[in-house]
Amino acid sequence: MAEELKKLTDSVQSIEGGKCIEVLKYEDLCIQPDVELTEGYKPPMFEMFDRTGDPKVHLRTYCNKLVGVGKDEWICMKLFMRSPTGDALSWYISQNPKKWVNWVTMASDFMDRFRFNTENAPDIFYIQNLKKKPTETFHEYTTRWRSEAAMVRPTLEEEQMNKFFVRAQDPQYYERMMVSENHKFFGIIKLGEIIEEGIKSGMVTNFEVLQATNKAL
After folding, report:
1. Are 168 and 127 in contact (CB under 8 A)?
2. Are the C-beta atoms of residues 198 and 151 closer than 8 Å to each other?
3. Cα(118)–Cα(128) distance, integer angstroms
4. Tens of pLDDT along 160-182?
5. 49 DSSP assignment
6. 133: left (phi over 0), alpha (psi -120 to 50) or beta
């Protein structure tokens, strides 16, 4: 009885060991293991996706980089692993590559996983009310505002972005910047920095300080 039990145990361990070996084989781990790149072909440097951007924009950017191989979906699938990073890469490598029978199935899974980035994207109302923090310089605020505005969907045109940025300003900035809505964004930034220097030097009235003073009287 003991001998039969040992044989049965050895048999189970052998099967389990075989399974471990099987899932570590190249054919099981690699996406499109039968696809070989043409000799001398150098894959381009892809934009990296870290799960925080727009997945559709990433897919479009990725495909546009595949000059010469874009119509071969198997190569597209094989090279895609070079583009995610961080949490996006962790998600990608945790998937079973055998379930992706073509490019569309893989791209669809990718879109489904990271679609929330666009669903939770800031809207126009949000960026129009995104104010400068007291601890920020005007340049720091501009960088933060522009970063948030870049995530608005549909994408804002330059003129729209300028208009919403000016309208987001506090009174001491808005009154002096409203005539510059049609200027280049860089010019609007420079004007804002000049106003900021004027406030610091006392040449431009700081309405927030003025209001606080009036309340105290």
Report:
1. yes
2. no
3. 19
4. 999 999 999 998 899 889 888 77
5. B
6. beta
